[in-house]
Amino acid sequence: MTANTNTLLEVRDLTVYFQGQNKHQPVRAVDGISFAIPEGAFHALVGESGCGKTTLARTLVGLQQATSGEVLIRNQNINSLLKNRKLLAKDVQFVFQNPLGALSRRQTVYQSLEEPLLIHNVGNADRRRQRIHELAELVGLPLSSLDRLPRSLSGGQRQRVAIARALALEPSILICDEPLSALDVSIQAQIVSLFSQLQQKLGLTIIMITHDLAVVREVCTSVSVMYLGKVMEANNTEPLFAQPAHPYTQALLSSVPSPDPNTESTRQRIVLRGEPPSPMAPPSGCRFHTRCPKAVPECSAKEPVLKPQANSGLIACHLV
Amino acid sequence: MSDSTEEPLFSVRDLVIDLYTEQVSVRAVDGVSLDVYPGEVLAVVGESGSGKTVMTLGPLGLLPEGVSVDIRGYAECSGQSLLARSGKELARLRGENFGIIFQDPISALNPMKKVGPQLASQAMRLRAVSKAQARVIALELLQRTGIPDPEGRYNCYPHEMSGGMLQRVMIALALAGNPKILIADEPTTALDATVQAQILELLQDIQRKENIAIVLITHDISVVAQMADRVAVLYAGRVAEYGTMEDVLTRPIHPYTKGLLSSVPDFRGQRTEPVTGIPGSPPDQSSLLPGCRFAERCPAAQHQCREKRPALVEMADVNKAHRVACPIAVSEGWGQSNDS
Known about the structure:
The complex is a heterodimer of chains A (320) and B (340). With 320 residues, chain A is α/β, with parallel strands linked by helices. Chain A has helices spanning 53-60, 78-81, 85-91, 99-102, 109-119, 125-139, 155-167, 185-202, 213-219, 237-242, 247-255, 261-265, 297-301, and strands at residues 7-18, 27-38, 42-46, 68-73, 76-77, 92-95, 173-177, 205-210, 222-227, 230-236, 307-308, 314-315. In chain A, helix 6 (125-139) packs across helix 7. Chain A is globular, with a radius of gyration of 21 Å. Chain B has 340 residues and is α/β, with parallel strands linked by helices.
């Protein structure tokens, strides 16, 4: 996570609040997040439901307005880029969790893939056909599926269509919100390896929101661990998994069982008490102190800042 | 555990379940035989459409409304047949023997009724106790399932509780009739990692302390590795492999089991070869071809696989409890197992 000269996407002190029933208590979905993603990274945003990871992702592509702070793409503020949405769409694309909801039910795969090309006036009919065939090949869709409707495709094939469509305009940044969680295990693995091939082949920068830590270790180069709207720890994948430093990261990693019975029988579990508190009234000081097995009085009094560590990571914890 | 001297609590033999709607008929379960022994955890593993839920809940008469069901074969619990029973008889047998934990507690609980009274009325129905006794039992159940402040929570509505708490209430509800078997259908799929760990811990605790058998329906191999004594791997309505958890997960023989295990990444230990998944997708069970259901996706498939249904055979001398439905892998597996 060291500063890189080729920062493609940057977030500075970002907050996103939603007005709920209580005017004085907004839902603080994203509550002061800063990070920089270098070109060519495959970055994971992990955390439990309600930690704000989806809101953050939506803000990165302008689907959600920030309450304060900035999102910068190639050093340009997203609000100015949003004045020309078509131009932004050529650079940044989004893959949603449920492909059946993201694809039009009445459009064939061919029509779904052609739509972005038509909107952006790409080539003539022949050139578009050629591009659609390229895209199908790129994501491993059989050409015979091009005339079919999403309904008649399997879950894995639908997600391939959604990915192909996101890639149609050759974006440099792909933001994926839980792209695997609607899929079966054997199909998930296919899509995981597809993401990793695409990233290498096309030099994409990918930000993937997920709750599946094993997938992160498999394909991502760096990770931010979120809890209640804040980043608790961020690091490159290998050191984060080898030496998780934040007590929350440690608990999160230890809570996932291993598929290998030998590893599983020796797993040291840290079972956290309770569940994440409400983002409407986050705890004082460190947000994690109410569940933290290592908390000391300082933790409830003062909010820790995200600071660089020797192992290349960033950690927000008084005890590290 | 699966001691051969012990009688199984729940058995199905040659179970075939066809589901019909107006448009299609699907063979969801196609000749499955399984046993559940007292106090053990049997994991039923498979992907969507493999028939794991239909196989387990079908004989109990708990399939969704709106589909017609045709069940053949044999299913019994504590020596009594479950099939060809009236709804009332089946409900009684179910209440005496089974507790069921559904994936999504918020849709399994009555949203209009407080959770305590829901538990109490279940206890009254299943244990024939008075209203006052039922209240005591309900509070006990809330305590047993680790709900803090049971008295206070007794009067909560489901929407006032978090996902993890609701799953605890669901487990309390399943325990209300003093079941011998808990059927847990993807009990942690809707939960976050740290909450999943709490719920699995609770289930393990109940199983060990109270010697209740658990049938764990799941697609998550990691949950199987943590919880199960034995595993049945289902593919397209049939058992592909069946054995102890260690045998199936560490010495898988069926090509589908191998493919499934190689699809699951593990973030512990050294990074090994990347996951690949299994090419293709599961077959359409409304139009079935003869032969092995997995043949279309199988890297080891031969001509015979598309002709004849593979029988589930015991692995020769090593471990009779390990059964595999693939003659090709079994003939290779014999060579391996002789070495060990």
